[in-house]
Amino acid sequence: MLLCDIGNTTYHFFLEDKGYKEDVNLFDPSIVKEKVFYICVNPHVKKVLKELENWIDLSLHVDMKKYYETMGVDRIMACEAIESGIIVDAGSAITVDVVKEGRFEGGFIYPGARAMSECYKNISSALTYSFNFEVDLDRMPKNSRDAISYGYLKLLQSEVKSYNMDIFLTGGDAINFKKIFPASLVDEMLIFRGMTNIMKRANLC
Amino acid sequence: MLLCDIGNTTYHFFLEDKGYKEDVNLFDPSIVKEKVFYICVNPHVKKVLKELENWIDLSLHVDMKKYYETMGVDRIMACEAIESGIIVDAGSAITVDVVKEGRFEGGFIYPGARAMSECYKNISSALTYSFNFEVDLDRMPKNSRDAISYGYLKLLQSEVKSYNMDIFLTGGDAINFKKIFPASLVDEMLIFRGMTNIMKRANLC
User: Fold this and answer.
1) Which residues on chain A are in Cβ contact (under 8 Å) with B144?
2) Domains and their CATH numbers in chain B
């Protein structure tokens, strides 16, 4: 059973217990002949896939009453993967979503590390630093690099911890963010687990 | 007694109890003939003012042992204005600094509203929203505009409130941020108060 999570830049495939990636601009989805169950946030790819019969859009099988209209389908799948907890998906944006007993309770969006670093740089060249993920978040900083690292990381850490729930960490930057959420469970396959749950409920597997 | 706080884009003058602004690119400081006590973060203007005898750089009178080397002089002056409290200076960046019994305890830097809004937009056109400063920060959001507004505002609000100190709000965006810090004291003249304190201590007035 082949699953695929398509973002703005990559096709992320998942087959049995292995993941692999293809570039959105280079990969031709019509070469895949088997059934692919996918989600997609890329508008151009969405159009292409609509024409391919063996590509099955799982977003059509989601009970959207549980979520909101403009919510990214990747966030929805991560929510479908867990019963209770707070999900931190650290990619180009960081989405934080709360699920209680299978019910989506709401969530927020924070900039990803690369975007936030650019943001500080655009304010002033004096704020051009890479983030220090090892910064001591229990002390107010007294140097510029830590002052922006704390501004970015401490605020996110406090908010996520304030829910006192199990933290599920996923996304391309999960390893870095594990440093500020040491008690979290890193699960790079969270979205695929959600997709599998949707398929089971829809009798697609 | 004429005071001036020079940023990247404006000369902000303060005379007796009135403030007025001049554009950095249009204003010629040599036309001022009286004494001006100033601070300046603009490297180009700094050079020009060094040549003018009646412009007196107050940063030279600060006890820098209390602060750190790359800390903006505007942040230092705001700290010099208060005895105890947490200062939120909401401009192109938001600087947050803690002062306890006249001692600087540290601070952090967060993006200003315009820069952060650009940051979300640069991640994805789907995140192009103006912030909703009226968003209910006690509930996890269930729509996109509130999801980014909460991400930006709630995290800052929680961190600032966690110190349980008097909040002093200043900077060009103070009015907007008053909505998330209703108990704060808005003081647009905070930096000038700090400058006056430095002058008193250095017997310059």
Assistant:
1) 68, 70-71, 109
2) 2-64+195-201 (3.30.420.40), 82-186 (3.30.420.40)
Round the average pLDDT of chain B to a whole number and report it: 95
Q: Residue A87 and residue A171: Cα distance in Å, rounded? A: 10
Contact (CB, 8 A) for B2 and B11: no
The whole-angstrom distance between A104's CA and the closest CA on chain B is 9
Helix (H, G, I), strand (E, B) or coil at B48: helix
> Would you place residue A114 in the very low, low, confident or very high pLDDT band (cuts 50, 70, 90)?
very high
User: What pLDDT shows up at residue B125?
Assistant: 87
Among B113, B105, B62, B59, which residue's Cα sits nearest to residue B83? B105
Residue B13 C-alpha, separation from nearest chain A C-alpha, in angstroms: 22
- pLDDT single digits (tens) A95-105: 999 999 999 99
Whether A20 contacts chain B with CB within 8 A: no
Give the strands of the sheet with A2-6, arranged side by side. A18-23, A10-15, A2-6, A36-40, A55-57
Of A68, A122, A150, the CB nearest to B142: A68
What's the pLDDT score for residue A205? Answer: 82
Q: What is the pLDDT of residue B152?
A: 98
| Residue A142 touches partner B, C-beta closer than 8 Å | yes
User: B108 touching A, CB under 8 A?
Assistant: yes
- Inter-residue contact B128 to B110 (CB < 8 Å): no
Whether B63 is a known active-site residue: answer no
Q: If you ran DSSP here, which 8-state letter would residue B144 be given?
A: H
Angle at A100 between CA A96 and CA A106, to 5 degrees: 40
Predicted confidence at residue B9, as pLDDT, reads 84
The ipTM value here is 0.91
Task: Tell me whether residues B159 and A155 touch, CB distance under 8 A.
Answer: yes
pLDDT lower than 70: segments of chain B:
none
Q: What is the mean pLDDT of residues A14-33?
A: 94
